[in-house]
């Protein structure tokens, strides 16, 4: 993904972030910070969660969008603003524009989740669905800007946006003055860059760790090359940080001020989302859970107190269902097993009896009798089971084998 940043390259200073904080007073919430006993035990140091998932519009994006739009000249406001987004940025621009009395047009992919489309409209934006992927949506938004004179509001590659996101860093220092490590997800880099400017200016010894999804990690190769590098076909469930190329402005700041960038896999993201829901009672989208995912492996190289930034909570219910099931599977609490049995009356009941004795909860059963791969007296059964962890999964598999079943998968 590429964006035009002509005319926007300049440094972001602490004064910019402090000015943004004054501008956002009464607009953006000072979000809560909650302790996590479970993560603290894993890391071996106090861990606190900065709950930007509870921000207005459900993410930190309102901060940067409001500061950017508020800084427009009167004639620019009169022309309106335009943005391209599949979710959080769309809602941030929509609400910021409404609060400032500016007309906003937001282009979204045709496949964007319906709750996000509805929320963006409810916040006051004119929503136009265009393209199947964000790059196509972005091109339409930029064409609209050129044709109408509307100001394109970039999601991360502008100093005003970065200054607005940096107010999260100021709040962290106010709420946890003794913080030693901040862990934050990175997509284009606007949030991490803003936090880094604010925190490093006031407490340069605080360590800042960025987190990317393995399938969409553009920062490691970019940092190695010393310039933003695009990666092909970024893929991750964490769409909030699925960005194929770092922004020019945030990259320069991240390169200078962020101490380390780590990557996490899809299993870790799923487990992190599940942990936030079960232990912290917080609904967090996969991108927002990425800092928690990075902490699941323990506290190597991390000094406490630690603040993990939960950047957003706008998760599509359909995706949430899939991710929760994936997270349960990653923790050994959900097991899908396929096996063959003799096709005779009572055979399925006998199988379910074995599973009952093994204390596995059956969620779903698929029974196939007609298939070229099966013998005349064979049937194939696929079971989805709720289990109690990896050890219990192994016990269930062994119980099936001991009962004489051929476990295929």
TrEMBL record:
<dbReference type="GO" id="GO:0006567">
    <property type="term" value="P:L-threonine catabolic process"/>
</dbReference>
<dbReference type="GO" id="GO:0009097">
    <property type="term" value="P:isoleucine biosynthetic process"/>
</dbReference>
<protein>
    <recommendedName>
        <fullName>L-threonine dehydratase catabolic TdcB</fullName>
        <ecNumber>4.3.1.19</ecNumber>
    </recommendedName>
</protein>
<dbReference type="InterPro" id="IPR005789">
    <property type="entry name" value="Thr_deHydtase_catblc"/>
</dbReference>
<dbReference type="GO" id="GO:0004794">
    <property type="term" value="F:threonine deaminase activity"/>
</dbReference>
<dbReference type="InterPro" id="IPR050147">
    <property type="entry name" value="Ser/Thr_Dehydratase"/>
</dbReference>
<dbReference type="InterPro" id="IPR001926">
    <property type="entry name" value="TrpB-like_PALP"/>
</dbReference>
<dbReference type="Pfam" id="PF00291">
    <property type="entry name" value="PALP"/>
</dbReference>
<dbReference type="InterPro" id="IPR002912">
    <property type="entry name" value="ACT_dom"/>
</dbReference>
<comment type="similarity">
    <text>Belongs to the serine/threonine dehydratase family.</text>
</comment>
<dbReference type="GO" id="GO:0003941">
    <property type="term" value="F:L-serine ammonia-lyase activity"/>
</dbReference>
<dbReference type="GO" id="GO:0006565">
    <property type="term" value="P:L-serine catabolic process"/>
</dbReference>
<comment type="subunit">
    <text>In the native structure, TdcB is in a dimeric form, whereas in the TdcB-AMP complex, it exists in a tetrameric form (dimer of dimers).</text>
</comment>
<dbReference type="InterPro" id="IPR000634">
    <property type="entry name" value="Ser/Thr_deHydtase_PyrdxlP-BS"/>
</dbReference>
<keyword id="KW-0021">Allosteric enzyme</keyword>
<comment type="pathway">
    <text>Amino-acid degradation; L-threonine degradation via propanoate pathway; propanoate from L-threonine: step 1/4.</text>
</comment>
<keyword id="KW-0456">Lyase</keyword>
<dbReference type="InterPro" id="IPR036052">
    <property type="entry name" value="TrpB-like_PALP_sf"/>
</dbReference>
<dbReference type="InterPro" id="IPR044561">
    <property type="entry name" value="ACT_ThrD-II-like"/>
</dbReference>
<keyword id="KW-0663">Pyridoxal phosphate</keyword>
<feature type="domain" description="ACT">
    <location>
        <begin position="336"/>
        <end position="409"/>
    </location>
</feature>
<dbReference type="GO" id="GO:0030170">
    <property type="term" value="F:pyridoxal phosphate binding"/>
</dbReference>
